[in-house]
Every structure is written in C-alpha cells, then in structure tokens.
Amino acid sequence: PLAIAPGAPVVVVPVGDLQRIPWAPLHDGPTTVVPSAAMWLRTAGQPRTTDHATLAAPQGAAAPRVAVIAGPGVPGALEEATVIAAAYVNAALLAQPESSCRAVAALLQVVDVAHFACHGRLRADNPAFSALLLSDGPLTVHELTRRGGAPATVVLAACESGAQVGFAGGEALGFVSALLAGGSTGVIASSVLVSDEGTSPLMVAVHESLAGGSTVGEALWSARQRADLDDSHQLASWCAFDAYGAG
Fold it and tell me: Residue-wise over 181-218: b if at least 16 C-beta within 10 A, else e?
C-alpha cells in the first residue's frame, strides 16, 4: 500500500512490538531500522570509518582499526572470524582464551569496526543484562553502557543480539540502542534465533561490502542477494538480520 519501488532504500522506525520484527526480508532493497528519526539524522551526519578500507588496500593506506571476536561454543566461529579479519588491512583477532570480557571491552574503545561471532542471550525481563557470551563469561548491555563509547560499525553474529525490549513512552533497550547511543553509526544484528551453521556465509559477504565502503544497510542487502536460499540454514540467516543506523 505504500507503493515503494523495488530496490528503493527504506528507513523503518518501529514502535512497540514491531521492534522485534525482522524488517530486511520484507522489502527488496536496502532496509535500515532506527529507534527514532533523530537517531537516523545523527548517524547519517557522522563520517563512516570504512570509507578507506578495501579488500586489497596497498601498504600504508588508511584503514580502520578492526576487532574480530570469536566466542566459545559456536561451531565455525573461529573460521568465520579468521576469514573476516583477513578482509581488512588492520584487524585484531581475539579467540579463546583471549576473547575475555575485559580484553574485548577495552578493545571496543579504540577500534572503528567490531565483529562478534558468539552466542547471545536475551533478558526480556531485564534487558540491561542481555549479554554476548565471551571466553570468560557474559558481556552485558549494562557493561557497554557503563564504559561508554562504541565502534562506529558493529556486526553482531549472535542470536537475538538485535532484540529490543520496549518500555512505556516508546523507549527501548538492548544492544542496538546501547551501541547507537554510545557512538556507533551502523549495527547489524539479529532480533531472533539464528543457526550457527548458516550465519558465516552471510557475515563474510557483509564484511566484503563493508570493507569496500558500503553502509550497513547496503552491505546487508548485498550479502542477502548472494545467499543460497535452498540451504535452510542460510535462509534462516537471510530472514533474521537487520541493519540499524545510517553508517
């Protein structure tokens, strides 16, 4: 009924329970979700740090500082992290046991791009304690908010990492809102459960686009075009992930 042209970029500002809907598969074009129009304007007005990162950047070229984190108990997480780290000129890879909460939280203060391949845990009753599970325990929304600051671009390949819990007055809390409030301009995350086996191809394709200078919305849309939808695991990931913010 909105008569949106196929392929046209769309920005969605959901309210209430609509914040839990995966919006990307509902439109055949780059789709970006934001908590508010004001947040969209803020993230659109900041420079994107991935503009100078390319897959084959010459030595000495400007490149973002990138952190790629692999958590425990996720089949293929280390392989996914290794391939993604190789897509950038200047990347640090943290796997077990180095991917501790303290080490990761400190690294997030100084990098421009961060990727998490780990399990996620949603606390709908207390979203401040929703967590990404790292080598020595949970890294919570509360901890990220307490430290302040966040990489410009964050990709969360973790179950329900994009789930936002709504409160009265239209407020929402979760990793996405905490990261955007902390300074991130673009986040990719899943609001639902995802298959460990099916996320890696999508995530690798996302970072190939990000490293070439795409926004998170463009990168996710491009990666979704390359997914094998006859593979049930890849289909689940194709449906699950959304891009948040204009960066």
Answer: bbebbbbbbbbbebbbbbbbbbbbbbbbbbbbebbbbb
- How distant, in Å, are the alpha carbons of 20, 159, 164 from that of 15? 9, 21, 10
pLDDT tens column, 178-211: 899 889 999 999 988 888 778 999 999 999 999 9
Q: What residues form DSSP beta bridges with 33?
A: 12, 244
Q: Are strands 153-157 and 137-140 parallel, antiparallel or unpaired?
A: unpaired
Run of H or E including 143? helix 141-147
Beta-strand relationship, 165-166 and 172-173: antiparallel
Residue type, 184: S
Asked whether the predicted pLDDT for residue 52 surpasses 50, the reply is no
Please confirm whether the linkage preceding 127 is cis (ω < 30° from 0). Answer: no
Rounded alpha-carbon distances, angstroms, from residue 192 to 20, 122, 151, 164: 8, 10, 23, 11
The pLDDT value given to residue 63:
58
Q: Is the dihedral of CA 124, 137, 208, 200 positive or negative?
A: negative
Three-state secondary structure call for residue 145? helix
Task: Output phi, psi for 37, to 5 deg.
Answer: -65, -35
Decide: helix, strand or coil at residue 77: helix
In this structure, what are the phi and psi dihedrals at residue 102, rounded to the nearest 5 degrees? -65, -45
Q: What is the 3-state secondary structure (H, E, C) of 179-246?
A: HHHHCCCEEEEECCCCCHHHHHHHHHHHHHHHHCCCCHHHHHHHHHHCCCCCCHHHHHHHHHEEEECC
Instruction: Fill in the amino acid letter for 99.
Output: S
pTM of this structure? 0.90
